[in-house]
């Protein structure tokens, strides 16, 4: 491990151990001296992937929680602002069998796959138990109504609000200000962002210092899963590490690229990492 990476890892660990530290401005400054282009799979898996249990996440401090899977890793190799958003996460969850496999292959370490739906359910239970406020930012108005209806039935102690931003590839400053104002006016404890990757992670990275929630989580498709507009694969496929297969069959036009292009590219990256070629 290079000295700059050791320094970065030590900074990140010390900041994450502080209960009242704001979002990681120190680490972000240090990242300016890191060559993101050369930061490969081995480095990311070793130094940034969350490998504990969800109950170990300290929800009393401000933090950003993101997920990574083989497809998002491949996208981040070409989109450095996305890679920066991912490695700046306070908690980066291994949302994909490929990430679990790669960690096992490279380090002989077994970690548990944690999907966006898992952290969503975990945080809702916490919010209900502690009578917290949650905000959903993203998706259509219809999807948000379905989420609110289900949430009030299953978690009656949670106060909920939501906002459907304009559907755009990129938000302008006016859009972002309106989104931030909607969130901050409600003043939630937890903000769920569902605007698809990498847009959601990059938007949070840019605007996080203007947002008041203590916990911010980008969970994309989970909005549709929870609303019931898209059905998540059942536990049989999830336990086999094939959660992607039923979804691919149902939505081939949308998901073919991540399975037939990103998966082989990720395996190539894994092979190179194993041979210490990258």
Q: What does this 3D model show about the protein?
A:
This protein is an alpha/beta fold and 278 residues long. It has two domains: 3-227, Rossmann fold, CATH 3.40.50; 235-274, no CATH class. 53% of the residues lie in helices and 11% in strands. The protein has 14 helices and six strands. It has helices at residues 3-16, 25-31, 41-47, 70-78, 80-87, 97-107, 116-129, 141-154, 173-186, 199-207, 222-227, 235-239, 244-250, 252-274, and strands spanning 63-68, 91-94, 133-138, 159-163, 190-194, 215-218. Helix 4 packs across helix 5 (80-87), helix 6 (97-107) packs parallel to helix 14 (252-274) and helix 13 (244-250) packs antiparallel against helix 14 (252-274). It is globular. It starts with a helix and ends with a helix. Pfam families: Glyco_tran_WecG. InterPro entries: WecG_TagA_CpsF (IPR004629). Keywords: Glycosyltransferase, Transferase.
Radius of gyration from the CA trace?
18 Å
Name the structural class: alpha/beta
Shape: globular
CATH class of the largest domain: Alpha Beta
Instruction: Count up the helices.
Output: 14
Helical residues, percent: 40-55%
Main β sheet profile? 6 strands, parallel
Spell out the key features of this protein.
WecB/TagA/CpsF family glycosyltransferase, WecG_TagA_CpsF, 278 residues, alpha/beta, Rossmann fold, 11% strand, 2 domains, 6-stranded parallel sheet, single chain, disordered N terminus, transferase, glycosyltransferase
């Amino acid at each position: 491990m290079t000295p700059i990476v050791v320094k970065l890892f030590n900074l990140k660990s010390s900041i994450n151990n502080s209960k009242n530290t704001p979002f990681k401005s120190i680490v972000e400054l240090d990242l300016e001296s890191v060559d993101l282009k050369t930061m490969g799979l081995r480095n990311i898996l070793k130094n940034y992937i969350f490998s504990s249990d969800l109950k170990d996440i300290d929800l009393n401090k401000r933090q950003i929680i993101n997920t990574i899977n083989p497809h998002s890793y491949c996208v981040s190799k070409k989109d450095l602002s996305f890679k920066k958003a991912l490695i700046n996460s306070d908690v980066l969850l291994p949302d994909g069998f490929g990430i679990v496999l790669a960690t096992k292959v490279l380090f002989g370490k077994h970690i548990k796959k944690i999907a966006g739906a898992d952290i969503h359910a975990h945080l809702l239970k916490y919010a209900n138990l502690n009578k917290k406020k949650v905000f959903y930012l993203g998706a259509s108005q219809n999807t948000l109504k379905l989420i609110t209806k289900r949430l009030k039935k299953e978690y009656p102690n949670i106060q909920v609000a939501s906002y459907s931003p304009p559907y755009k590839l990129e938000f302008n400053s006016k859009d972002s200000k309106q989104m931030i104002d909607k969130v901050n006016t409600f003043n939630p404890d937890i903000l769920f962002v569902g605007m698809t990757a990498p847009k959601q992670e990059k938007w949070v990275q840019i605007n996080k210092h203007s947002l008041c929630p203590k916990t911010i989580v980008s969970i994309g498709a989970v909005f549709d899963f929870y609303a019931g507009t898209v059905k998540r694969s059942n536990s049989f496929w999830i336990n086999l590490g094939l959660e992607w297969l039923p979804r691919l069959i149902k939505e081939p036009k949308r998901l073919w690229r991540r399975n037939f292009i990103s998966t082989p590219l990720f395996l190539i990256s894994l092979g190179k990492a194993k041979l210490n070629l990258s």
